[in-house]
Amino acid sequence: MHIDFEPTTNELQIRANQSDLFKIINSLASNKQTLHCPTSELRALFPFSSYLESIQIYHDTNQTVKFSVMDNKYLQIQGSLDKLKILGDNINELIKHPQWQHLHLEYYPDHPYLAKSTLSVVFWIANDTV
Question: The pTM is what?
Fold first, then answer.
């Protein structure tokens, strides 16, 4: 798994193989869960200028899903369990349809599960050599 972040534009991408995407899905159901990126993946991929070391997941009752970068070191995903489940279902659809290659998540008015203040994120499905 590789997480890139561009602080000047607040762009965020997660490149992960199917196994790591399943770990993310399973972790969305577990409060205060942390997923670490392999040390070999701790580098920024062009055009991004920085990378994040881990994903931390927090449950927040009755809240829509928010992606935030904390201390320029990790990605925080927080939201209510039911909204995080919808996120997990969407990631699972990407796994079932690898020809899609990516899943772009961005808030729009009345979004069913994303918070207005969330960062946009793109999940990329990669082969096992991520």
Answer: 0.90
Among the residues of the chain, which ranges form H helices?
18-27, 81-96
CB-CB contact of 107 with 66 (8 Å): no
Q: Where are the domains of the chain?
A: 2-125
pLDDT in tens, the chain (130 residues): 999 999 999 899 999 999 999 999 999 988 788 888 876 667 777 888 898 999 999 999 889 999 999 998 899 999 999 999 999 999 999 999 989 999 999 999 999 999 999 999 999 998 764 4
Among 71, 90, 117, 110, CA closest to 14: 90
CATH number, domain 2-125:
3.30.1360
Residue with tokens 């701790």: 42
Q: Residue 57: phi, psi to the nearest 5?
A: -115, 130
Q: Is 17 exposed, middle or buried (0-12, 13-18, 19+ CB in 10 A)?
A: middle
